[in-house]
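Sequence in, structure out.
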Amino acid sequence: MVNIGIMGAGRISAVMAKTINGMTENGDKSVRLYCVGARDKKRAESFAKANDVLKAFGSYEEMLADEELDLVYVATPHSHHADCVRLCLDNGKHVLCEKAFTANAHQAEDIVSRAKEKRLLLAEAIWTRYQPMRKTISETVASGIVGEPKTLTANLHYAVDYKERLVEPYLAGGALLDVGVYVLNFAEMVFGRADRVQAICTKTEKGVDITDSITLIWNDGKIAVLNAGMNAVSDRNGVIYCTKGFITVENINNPQSVSIYDEKYNLLDKICCPKQITGYEYEIMEAVRCIEEGLTECPSMPHSETLHIMYMMDGIRAQLGVKYPFER
């Protein structure tokens, strides 16, 4: 059994707690929600009581000193990911770190190198890379049922510009790291690595990007038009345009269905998402398998892909003119 600890006691941590508890309730004996660590004891205890967590710690260091803890899910702000992961690795713990993996590629390179040196698992918890619908989308496109794919569009917007972690530069705020990372991953899961990237944005008064428009271009002629933002609500859908029809993906942030249309706009088929606890369970299951097999990375999101996305986002931020105060 893998004892899992949650670092951070925010909303997303509660979703992960629900996931792990749900896995246990469904008879999965490979995992246990073991502990939570927060910046103060009262917050950790409140979280533990509300989410059926066995132990609560008032500091990350205290949590990581527990010898029975195996795997840590890092759910702190983007700006803190690298330091938190480093702390976990230095205490001999495997890590599943929320997206965006780090604030920049330099930080990502450092912690990936450290995980390999210590022979510990380190994986990015971007759930769409692990979900079974990823395979469904890929197989549908590859089948050629509506011809050859040429173009795709994807959007992901939430009205969340009131959240401190998303609007403060010192917390690596902005749309790109929080929601833009999803449209980038969606496009490259369908078309592979892009050859060129062009991006523009609108910014807040504090200088972080609030709405991003990103175009990915492939040398074979494919193109992806992506947009992401944190001041409005969107349908969150993706569309893959092919030579004999098109494929729509309902909610790229957790695909619920894939619909296939022919060139006359007739619905040929609709494939729905399998029943899930929250959608986070797949990254946990793969992380546990990898720990059991002694791997330092997850096949669904290997270090090479995580680093590639981080370098891409660094390049996009350079185009946007967005730099965080703690960066060199």
